[in-house]
Amino acid sequence: MRRSDLGEFEEVVLLAVAVLVPKAYSVMIAEELERETGQTVSTGAVHAALQRLEQKGYVTSVLGEATAERGGRRKRLFTVSALGGRVLTEVRSVRNRLWDRIVPPTLLEWS
Amino acid sequence: MKTPKPPSWPDRLLSWLVAPHLREEVLGDLHERFHRRVERLGEAQARRRYWREVLAYLRLSNLKRKPSAYSSPFYLSPVMLRNYFKIAQRNLLKHKGYSLINIGGLATGMAVAMLIGLWIYDELSFNTYHQKYDRIAKVMQSAVVNGEFGAGEYMPIPLGNELRTAYADDFISVVLSSWTREHILAYGDTKLTKTGNFMSPEAPDLLTLKMLKGTREGLRDPSSILLSQSVSDVLFGDADPLGKIVKIDNKLNVKVTGIYEDLPHNTAFRDMTFMAPWDLYVSSESWVKQAQDNADWGNNSWQILAQLAAKSDFEAVTAKIKNLRLKHVPETAYMKPEVFLHPMSRWHLYTGWDKSGNVEGRIQYVWLFGIIGVFVLFLACINFMNLSTARSEKRAKEVGIRKAIGSLRSQLISQFFSESLLVVAIAFVISLLLVQLMLPFFNEVADKTIAILWANPIFWLSGIGFSFLTGILAGSYPAFYLSSFLPVKVLKGTFRVSRFASIPRKVLVVVQFTVSVTLIIGTIIVFRQIQYAKNRPIGYDRSGLITITMNTPELYGRYNALRNELLQTGSVTEMSTASTPVTNLNSRLIGFDWEGKDPNLKEQFGTVAVSHDFGKTVGWQFIEGRDFSRAFSTDSSGMVLNETAVRYMGLKDPVGKTVKWNGKPHRIIGVVKDLVMGSPFEPVYQTVFLLSYEWASVINIRLNPNQSASESMAKIETVFRQFNPGSPFDYKFSDQQYALKFATEERIGRLASVFAALAIFISCLGLFGLASFVAEQRTKEIGVRKVLGASVFNLWRLLSKDFVMLVVIAFGIATPIAWYFLHHWLQKYDYRTEISWWIFAVSGFGALAITLLTVSFQSIKAALMNPVKSLRSE
């Protein structure tokens, strides 16, 4: 499996899905990311990322219940698949390993 | 509080763009986000953000439709479509003859319809070149004299001034104009005879001339002239024309102040190649000046154009000005004169009134040709349908097999439709080519400058729309009927076409031939009418007679010198002057009185002033009395009448009696046979001839018949050069002028004959196709008959009988229809031919002969076939 097929935005979205399960859908994810990053995130961008993730098999989706404020339309709820979970862990461990190898003086310089 | 709603049209945009399986979640997400933002940030902010949200969804992954789980329908499958086209192509190529007849006939029909359509379009768009088209009117007047309605556009000058001042609110401008007449334009050595008008200075603006140089204000200068581009090009070539001095009629020096684009062919003023100021005209012509200075309401000699104010409409203003003439010339009350506005949009098609005041103008021809066009097209469609239905029965087996291997009925229907649409499309392309080829010829016959409207969407829309309709109509029978066959029956061979399947075809053939025969009869009668009028005795000899307009002062007062000089050349046998050309009686005057005149008669006479030698020049023939003669000095107050005038006045023994004209007595010295000076279709007008050398506007010359015309003309030209050096030598042959009187009728005749020929051609094509189809269908029957001893003649009769019957029925229907319409048409001519029975007989036999010729080719071919061959194949 190539690591490069998980983009940075996709990774963040995937993480957000993991956090928000079982109520992970575009709107919630977009707002969560806005809260976390402080930048405006459109549902369209999130939706596109989710589509890609689903295509790659990292998330699965089902249609959820409808609400009035959605004009009676159902939402698509996402969960991280086992494969998605494994990819996330792998990405994280790569990062952790790299972090761990940064020498303390460099870290000190940044802070 | 009402909950705020997101703007609705992004929703529509998205639900149109976004793939159906994503629509629900996408729209749902958008709305939910919107509501949450409203709660958090307020509505305005939420709305602003909404747009960016929407735009974020417009990406390819959202637009792409999910592939369907089912296979796509046949009409989207290229393989199946290709198969349909292949079969259509094979069918066309396999039966080349049929395809040719089918496509050729349809293309001809469409081409004719297209031509007629273009012609009608041109007629309807007449004068629309002028941008103020719908606000311009011609001021006209009507009167009822002796119970007959008449309308004219000859108006008095003071009416123009009155409209300008007393009705200033209703008119933006009122333009007085002379008639479009020939004048001499000279610049340096270049001298041209050109037609043009003298008009009020508002005229260029009224007519919205497109100025290429100078401005529309150019006419305000009283000695100025506006030239059309073509005249300017001839006069000045590449030099700058502005400011150059041009001489009109050898007497008026004017400065060129503007050049306008030539007026297009389909405008009323197309012959106006220059425009000079009205004031110049008034000051140069004493009779006009007199009329203007004295505000003479009695001299109706000019035209008045007007542009209506924005808030006024034609009817309302007409009602206001209706009685102006009556008010100023109360003595005309007996003829109920009415002034009215004739809108520019009606000039071309609705000018002309019958004796009771009903409009009869060119619009009738527009209708006539429109109907012919529709019929020809209809004929072509009938053919097309007939042949395709006839052919399609041959394809029953194909239908059976297609059904057996799984075709649905709807598939077969669309297959047949696409086939007929393909054929129609080919025919449409060919018809475009045909029209392009025929246009030059057509333009010449119809006196038009029509071109295909390549850039006009309406043209394409109607052309393609019509083709589509034809395709659907023609394809509907095979599509719906054939596709209903039961495959089992068809393939087993027990399939029989019902006895009545051919009835609609027969009806269509009858309709076709009814139209064709009607057109044949119509054409014959139109030509008979023209010939009848042409053969009419005209009372003078028009061959070898030429007229020269006296348009410069040099030609006046030198009558005898000019005459002697011309006679000496030996090319001229006689010369005289007259107040009107012999082919155009343009002056009708009142004020005559005679003994025994009915006091209630409002008399009017065509009045012609002639010189002593007029009679010998034109060759009129005396019934009683004698010609003007120099031997009698009293002849200066003599008068010659025509036969009609004698009848009109109710005189017995006219010679020697006295007629007073405006109080002055004239003695009648002779009566001549009627001279046809006006329309040859109308009765001759009562005319008097008086002696006058001052009242002259044309020179008549009789050429020596023993010399060639070109030689004579050269000699005459030298004489005129000597007498009138400042003018170009322009002359007109009277026989040509006379022939022009038939132009309208001949045009109609020629167009009608072309259309009739095409209609017959199309009908015959159809018949030919049908005959061959029938012959083919009955191959076996013919074989059996031959074996049993039928002769070729028997078989020929058998096969031709059906068609002859149809044509006879068609003839029976066509005769009363044609009689009705032509009788009606002839009523408008006073001098008209009769509709004699032989015309119908000839048309009927003609149609029959053509039918037999067409059918015989096929039936004899079938009858000559070897029965062994036709019976062997089982």
Automatic annotation (TrEMBL), chain A:
Listed InterPro entries: Tscrpt_reg_PadR_N (IPR005149), WH-like_DNA-bd_sf (IPR036388), WH_DNA-bd_sf (IPR036390)
Cross-referenced Gene3D superfamilies: Winged helix-like DNA-binding domain superfamily/Winged helix DNA-binding domain
SUPFAM superfamilies cross-referenced by the UniProt entry: Winged helix' DNA-binding domain
One Pfam short name: PadR
Positions of the Transcription regulator PadR N-terminal domain: 23-89
Domain of life: Bacteria
Name the record gives this protein: PadR family transcriptional regulator
Organism taxonomic ancestry: Bacteria, Pseudomonadati, Bacteroidota, Cytophagia, Cytophagales
TrEMBL record, chain B:
Predominant cellular place of this UniProt entry's protein: membrane
Pfam families according to UniProt: FtsX, MacB_PCD
Alphabetical UniProt keywords: Cell membrane, Membrane, Transmembrane, Transmembrane helix
Molecular-function GO terms, alphabetical: transmembrane transporter activity
Domain MacB-like periplasmic core: 99-323, 514-718
UniProt domain ABC3 transporter permease C-terminal: residue ranges: 371-484, 754-867
Membrane topology: Multi-pass membrane protein
Subcellular location: Cell membrane
Record field: transmembrane: 100-121, 365-387, 416-439, 459-486, 507-527, 751-775, 803-823, 835-855
GO CC term, one of those recorded: plasma membrane
Highest taxon above the source species: Bacteria
Protein name as annotated: FtsX-like permease family protein
Organism of this sequence: Larkinella humicola
